[in-house]
């Protein structure tokens, strides 16, 4: 029989602390040691309780400081009677001093997590103090186990008692839903002390019982339990037990025993983590075949998770466990089904935002909104949401080593996810903004995590698809898909991430060098009809849809407007005419200043652009759009139109249209009319307006300044101007600082 490991009794409590959290966060540090008077007062309350509440409060105090307590037999006599009433508080206290426990637990003690923890404590004490006795009883225990007999624990052997309890859980006579950290800690230490046959039977039963719970928390704790076990076995050079565990969770055994697979996956991931930690901690170089065994189990489970029905409950939890478990394993061999499984888990289980938003939009009444809000809150507190970042890292690692076919599949899933998120988020914000702002705040927390996930993945994609030196081949069309995905999520961008900046930079560079991808990018912009229509998913119940108040869509268009100038030189003129022109001028009077400024930048970039293949057509379109641009811009000035945008547009128009262009003349005429109106209104409102010119921000002065600069820039024949226009200009140039300009206009008028 294998010799049980000699570990200190405190290890039982330490294991319970490790397993207490159902996340992968390390155990919380113990609180500061209590004052002696506090502990003395607590024991006094337990000796002479005044009420059940006093007893409960005293036990909670002892439980909080359990790591710093040292119990005596007198303390034991106080705690034992309280064990059946408060097993979860009392059993960890007793487990810290198993040498004080009686040789067998009271027969009246019900099966509970505390009961299992105490059995583990007894196993610890026996393993430490009575190795020879355990060895002598091994043959009897093994015979009983082989015949399926449980001697009902009459010999006081905690290993046999735990075996019997797990058998009862398998058969349904005992509940398996109390399998919390205390129960698993007790079972874990019994496994550490058991011989090989006992180890086989208990571990097999534990896997089956965990499978019946369908509980993700049990799976997370099982991973940590297996890691703890294997690190102990490796430290004590008990590698045969490691091999036994790998045999029990092997794909062949899974099929033979028909295991529910999620606890098997977590056990395999716990084993991989233990091998990784041990190789660093003890400087060991394991045989690669040892690591391959649990990896094969994970691949087997991933195959099942991908091929089975999409929303079957056991497949959902299996995908969750594959994704979460791999975050603890370090680098593992890439496998197509593992990549698919992690991708599905991330998009459907960890960040299931489109499905939740769809539910919210389809049932917009107040009660449904409250239900969805509570679901979001629960999800934010869950390990699934908290581990979304590490799982994204696993996805990127698996992607980087995958085949081209697998890469394409995952890319498609992520881009479609981004577009689905945009559609549902847009509808949800339109429907609930100003009515359910608390709900929208909860939604945005999950949505921002989804944004980070897409950004990190896209940055990884650029390394493989947009790198001309990549052995996998250059894929310029992927640049468009990345930019489209980012446009869908622009509303959620809060930080300037280096991954985001690098992904956009690479995608934009590809667009600038490839006319075909530039055209694809422009064609991906929603049409004018789409932009001015309500979302298909949304029913506004007679409420009028106002497109410029659609914040999510506005953010998306803003992204497009910022990227368009980088590639407009490569866009054929007919596409600009058919696709871009209406959109540019739709947003030139937008209430969002960022959108308006970006629209002016697009106009400037278009006026500055050149295309050798259709130069005449392009110049004709510039002339045509210049009229409309000046008209729309001046209509909204001052107010919506920023002066800087107007000035840049006028300057581009003057520089890039031919001399004598009717559009330039129309621009000058329109500016004069606008300046006249503004000056008249300003003089009426403030007669001292003209006493100070420098540094003035008055719209009329800005327009006049722009007008005068434009006349100096434009190379046209002044004789072609009609006298009223020139006279109108001169009438407004009566300022002392600009007297020389008035004289110049007078001379021009004389020569005309």
UniProtKB/TrEMBL annotation:
Annotated region described as Disordered, given as residue ranges: 131-156
Top-level taxon of the source organism: Eukaryota
Listed Basic and acidic residues bias regions: 146-156
Protein name: Uncharacterized protein
């Amino acid at each position: 029989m294998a010799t049980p490991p000699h570990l200190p009794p405190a290890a039982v409590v330490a294991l319970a602390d490790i397993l207490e959290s159902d996340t992968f966060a390390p155990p919380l540090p113990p609180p500061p040691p209590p004052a002696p008077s506090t502990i003395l007062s607590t024991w006094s309350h337990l000796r002479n309780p005044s009420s059940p509440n006093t007893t409960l409060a005293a036990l909670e105090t002892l439980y909080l400081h359990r790591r710093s307590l040292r119990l005596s037999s007198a303390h034991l006599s106080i705690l034992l009677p309280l064990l059946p009433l408060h097993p979860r508080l009392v059993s960890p206290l007793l487990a810290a001093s198993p040498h004080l426990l009686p040789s067998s637990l009271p027969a009246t003690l019900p099966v509970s997590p505390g009961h299992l923890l105490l059995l583990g404590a007894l196993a610890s004490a026996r393993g430490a103090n009575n190795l020879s006795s355990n060895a002598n009883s091994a043959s009897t225990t093994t015979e009983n186990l082989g015949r399926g007999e449980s001697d009902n624990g009459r010999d006081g052997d905690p290993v046999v008692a735990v075996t019997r309890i797990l058998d009862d859980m398998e058969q349904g006579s005992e509940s398996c839903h109390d399998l919390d950290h205390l129960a698993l800690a007790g079972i874990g230490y019994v496994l550490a002390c058991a011989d090989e046959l006992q180890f086989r039977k208990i571990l097999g039963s534990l896997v089956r019982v965990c499978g019946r719970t369908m509980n993700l928390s049990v799976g997370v704790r099982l991973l940590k339990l297996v890691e703890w076990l294997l690190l102990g076995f490796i430290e004590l050079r008990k590698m045969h037990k490691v091999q036994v565990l790998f045999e029990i969770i092997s794909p062949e055994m899974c099929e033979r025993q028909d295991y529910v697979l999620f606890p098997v996956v977590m056990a395999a991931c716990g084993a991989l983590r233990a091998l990784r930690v041990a190789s660093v901690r003890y400087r060991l170089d394991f045989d690669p075949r040892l690591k391959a065994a649990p990896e094969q189990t994970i691949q087997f489970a991933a195959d099942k998770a991908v091929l089975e029905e999409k929303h079957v409950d056991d497949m959902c939890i299996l995908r969750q466990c594959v994704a979460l478990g791999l975050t603890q394993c370090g680098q593992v061999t890439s496998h197509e089904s593992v990549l698919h499984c992690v991708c599905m888990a991330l998009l459907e289980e960890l960040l299931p935002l489109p499905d939740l938003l769809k539910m919210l939009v389809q049932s917009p009444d107040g009660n449904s909104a409250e239900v969805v809000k509570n679901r979001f809150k629960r999800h934010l507190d869950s390990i699934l949401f908290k581990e979304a970042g590490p799982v994204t890292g696993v996805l990127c690692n698996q992607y980087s080593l995958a085949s081209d076919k697998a890469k394409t599949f995952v890319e498609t899933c992520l881009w479609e996810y981004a577009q689905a998120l945009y559609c549902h988020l847009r509808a949800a914000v339109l429907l609930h903004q100003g009515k359910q702002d608390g709900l929208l705040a909860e939604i945005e927390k999950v949505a921002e995590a989804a944004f980070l996930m897409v950004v990190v993945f896209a940055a990884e994609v650029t390394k493989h698809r947009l790198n001309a030196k990549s052995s996998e081949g250059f894929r310029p069309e992927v640049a468009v898909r990345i930019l489209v995905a980012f446009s869908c999520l622009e509303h959620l961008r809060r930080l300037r991430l280096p991954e985001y900046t690098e992904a956009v930079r690479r995608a934009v560079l590809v667009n600038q060098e490839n006319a075909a991808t530039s055209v694809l990018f422009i064609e991906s912009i929603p049409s004018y009809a789409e932009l001015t229509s309500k979302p298909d998913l949304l029913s506004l119940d007679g409420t009028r849809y106002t497109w410029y108040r659609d914040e999510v869509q506005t953010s998306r268009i803003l992204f497009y407007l910022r990227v368009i100038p980088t590639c407009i030189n490569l866009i054929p003129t007919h596409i600009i005419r058919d696709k871009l022109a209406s959109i540019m001028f739709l947003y030139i009077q937008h209430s969002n200043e960022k959108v308006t400024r970006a629209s002016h930048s697009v106009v400037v970039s278009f006026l500055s652009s050149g295309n050798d293949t259709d130069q005449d057509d392009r110049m004709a379109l510039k002339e045509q759009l210049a009229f409309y641009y000046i008209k729309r811009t001046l209509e909204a000035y001052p107010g919506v139109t920023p002066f800087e945008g107007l000035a840049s547009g006028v300057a581009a128009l003057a520089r890039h249209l031919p001399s004598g262009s009717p559009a330039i003349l129309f621009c000058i005429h329109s500016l004069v009319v606008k300046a006249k109106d503004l000056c008249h209104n300003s003089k009426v409102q403030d007669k001292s307006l003209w006493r100070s010119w420098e540094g003035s921000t008055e719209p009329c002065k800005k327009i006049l300044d722009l007008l005068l600069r434009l006349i100096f820039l434009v190379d046209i024949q002044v004789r072609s101007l009609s006298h009223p226009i020139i006279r109108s200009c001169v009438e407004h140039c009566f300022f002392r600082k600009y007297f020389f300009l008035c004289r110049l206009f007078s001379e021009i008028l004389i020569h005309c």
